[in-house]
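Researcher: Going back to the complex we discussed earlier. I've cleaned up the inputs and rechecked each line, so this should be the final set. Can you rerun the prediction on the complete assembly and write out the structure?
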Amino acid sequence: MKININNEVIFASTGGRAFEIKGHPLWFIHGSGQSHLSFILQGRFFANRGWPVISADMPSHGLSSGAPLATIEAMSDWQIALMDELGIEKVQIIGHSQGGLIGLDMAYRYPDRVSQLSLVATALSIPVNSNLIEMAKNKEQSAIDAMIDWGHGPEGHNHDNTMPGQNHLNFGVQLMAANKLGALHADLKACVDYTNGHIAADNISCPSQIIIAQKDKMTPMKFGLKAAEALNTNNITVIENAGHMLPSEHPEEVNRALRTFFTKS
Amino acid sequence: MTGDYKFDTLSLHAGFTPDERHGSAAVPIHQTTSYVFKNSEHAAALYNLEIGGHLYSRISNPTVAVLEQRVAALDEGIGAVATSSGMAALFVTVLALCSAGDHIVSSSQMYGANINLFQHTLSRYGITTTFVAPNDPEAFAEAIQPNTKMVFGEVIGNPGLDIMDITRVGKIANDAGVPLVIDATFNTPYLLKPLKNGANIVIHSLTKWMGGHGVALGGIVVDGGNFDWGQNDRFPTLTESHFGFQGVNLYEEFGPAAFINRVRTEGMYNVGPCLSPTNAFHLMQGIETLSLRMDRHIENTKKMLAFLSSHESISWIKHPTLPEHPDYEVAKRLMPKGAGSVIACGLKGGREAGQSFIESVQVASHLANVGDAKTLVIHPGSTTQSHLSPEAMKAAGLTDDMLRISVGLEDFDDLKSDFEQALKRASKARS
Ligand SMILES: Cc1ncc(COP(=O)(O)O)c(C=O)c1O
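Model: Rerun complete. Updated structure for the full complex:
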């Protein structure tokens, strides 16, 4: 659906079902240079099972207009503004990669707006390689290609797919290329600049869950385990053979792990 | 590039993971119509496009899916749907984009059935086509109308072998908010990847060089995912509510994959030209050696061109790699490895000589196909086009003396001897 926020028209997927507030909606937050299309198979799966789903494109991403946001904190404020606009009090957050940092920051600074937190392929900080940030600024297509390469595990690289006939790597490239120029660079820079992850994790009291991709080259497994320790959670799922883009590469395992954690009204 | 495996590796491996239970190294032929659901929830999830998997082989099949994933990888597309033939691939593409009242701009030099589909079949359903010369990019620009839903052509046009400059035509189409759809049968992704050179959707007749052995029919649609269907309101089949799946908006839900999802959820569901798993297996056997075969096709084509060029019985010869071909430069830029293995040439002595040649070849086969591992020859004037008047022949870019040769992989010495003796007989027929 299209929503007007801060005078910009933005898009949020509702998983293919009409959105209606019931309990605490599932609130998906995409990663750097991604869009709601990272969560196609999560959104549809949970929306069709009766959960209210929101998976918004942040400004300059997917089908949303507006200038890209520069810091993780600004991104959390934007997510909260979107919740306000939709009249939602509390959400269950699912944050992928950079979306995990936003989720941490939201749960820390807006504790009464977040009922629980699922962190997928993320860490307390994401110290993006400076060459990649440069590339995102000057040669965006090369940065996209590199991220799609590193972001996928063996299945993606072998062009196998749970969805018959589809291709992870080439879809990933087109998904990222469809965002507005500059969105990726702004995201990567926001990730590097975010240093409050540890403080946030120490202060978060809502239940949390960590889903780790065993072959993640972008936010390696050990950082996910550290995040779990800091959040004091033992709800940890490691998905074998998966790369960073596990929501699309290993949708069923991700959905299974999420489903055991979500609460329904 | 995404640090991806190279072409030859993809030809052998892409899209297939051996299953854990049996570990079959070859892609198994899943000769089944249907698939047992784990439970009702699983069945519903498959019908709702929430999870991957197969429910009925008209819509998808595990063997066919490996072929789709392999060709999508080779063509650098975001996804593919395989069909029972190349013609079916074109039909489901049109079906996904066009409705009554819509319009297509197409090359005028194409495989006859492609032309016939547009000219005689689609016109009965209210879809009209403007045909323009493939090597006149500006003509495409002029022909695009507000209701144009696709620009279409073959890179190497059949039968005249004119070359469509897809980089230029692609830009012209995209600037007008229309996708470029290319029939890449004659080039295969080994000689040219249209999706990386201006096209948005590619179709292949896999029956030809891709399968390469003349044992199985098949086609495929590959989506480049590089066209923004939401940029204008031309494509309601993709940007408005779909009739199924709770009215899903394919553009919003699947983004760059809207088109290929429409092909599967409408073309395969409602029309059903699905590829049999056994044919998919045969076609993949061919694709494993695509680059080796194409290199040899090109090598033999070069030798054949040299042989025919100096032969006294040949009055003219047409191939895009010959400097006198009007599109030589474009062909060289688009297809540096070679511009396919079909040659058109004129035989002195017209229809009688042509007939005699065709009936005299022994190594080459006289039949109506192209892209087999074996060399194929046909004389359209005395066979496929024999019912046409001289004027109609001319309009179709054909002449009475024309031979079409699809150069195969035989030892060239044998091909040469065979052609020499058949040309000798042909010249006797004319004298
Ligand atoms: C260029 C071209 N496109 C499409 C087709 C149709 O393919 P099929 O026979 O697999 O339907 C053919 C040949 O028949 C062809 O030569």
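Model: Worth noting: Chain B has two domains: 7-286, 291-430.
Researcher: Good, that matches what I expected from the previous run.
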